[in-house]
Amino acid sequence: MTSETITTHPGSFIDGAPHENRGAPIALVNPATGQVFAEVPGATAADVDTAVSCAQRAFADWSALGTAQRGEILGRAVAHAEEHVDELVRLLVREQGKTIRDARIEIPKALDTLTHYVGLSKALRGAHTPMLAPGVDGYVLRRPLGVVGAIVPWNFPTTLLANKLAPALVAGNAVVAKPAGTTPLTTLRLAELLGEGGLPAGLFNVVSGPGASVGEAMVTHPGIRKIAFTGSTPVGEHIAALAAKGTKRVTLELGGSDPMIICDDADVTAAASAAAMGRYYNCGQACLAIKRVYVFDSVADEVIEAITGKAKRLKVGPGDAEGVQLGPLHTARQRDEVADQVERTLALGGELTAGGSAPDDPELADGFFYLPTVVVDPPAGCPMETEEVFGPALPIWRVRDFDEAIERANASPFGLGSSVWTRSLARARQAAERIEAGYTWINSRTKVYDELPFGGWKSSGYGKEHGEEAFDYYTESKSVVVAGRE
After folding, report:
1. Which CATH architecture has domain 258-449?
2. Choosing from 95, 106, 164, 382, which is the catalytic residue?
């Protein structure tokens, strides 16, 4: 295999320009080839401090603007970035490993989220309570927090950033963002493009590097008033503990093990298609992926056959290759973890109907590939049911009835997303009310909408992203009482 040319990058984007980090270099690996293609120095606590200081200066002018003015400026910046979608797609495929098809969904979706909040900048309303007493009115005042931090994982570097960046900026804050140490390049380029499009310098800063050093420097920095984090539950809990000192605000979008219930009256073809797409999209590396399927006995064979068939037909290969539907996992460690979860589950029981190993194609041997996998009826409480499986492996269980399906769906520490397929309105309503999760799709693919608030229950997190509700987590509210009239 031809070796890749190794490029270098300063590592951060601070005060409207590339900034040379002062830490040790981090090797970026192409997941499809296993080869290093770039080196990026990691940021230090001093680099974080520089970013925060620049953000504080930018915040003073930005927060003084009208909300609609902020939206107009952000809108022009987004319009400029939209002219470079293909460039961002190529960067994302190389550093993250996803397919071109998936990257062409992610990049426009990130820009759409920014545009959505541009629109909301002209629609924000406050609360007014007249006549609290004779001659006394009340209203609620909202002000931006100041400098906020966004810590983003590697699986969706741009969409998960936009979920935080958009409401933060429109609400009047300045942002210091940290992409995952293995996927900084797309985020850094997006920051440059937004700056070229007119976003004021210092308003959106990016510092790259390891979470253990750069992330902790952000969480503990006294100049950052809020941390928005997406990632694993253990890391989220650690961030919450660190943020407690200084009473920082946090929003945490953490792990998930989303169940799908397929009832005996469901559109089986559509449900099976949604299960396969929901599990194998982005090589299964999504918090909101379908990770457990519970299907009624009477339709189980049909569903299992359909999902297994789809898994076997998916074309696996490098993300930039023609027609590829499933790229590599992001790292060798991630691939090995999924393989271990499947192996430990099968050791306890269950039937492997698809996948269960790396592909045998020698052209893929150096990449971090794993075949789309289906395991049927493993024992209750097996690793694939109790742990978050962050890769292309799906367990399916037969269940007797609706009550058993709900009970099994809720038997998890996670509560991020969920879905149910049924033609019964009564069952649909019960599922929405009884499933312990922050989002439930009924007869629908698992797509998140900017118009609706999104956030997990239980070990899946705290706070909301998307929707107007996101502004609640980027503003301080104050009750104001006005007495007397001339």
Report:
1. 3-Layer(aba) Sandwich (3.40)
2. 164
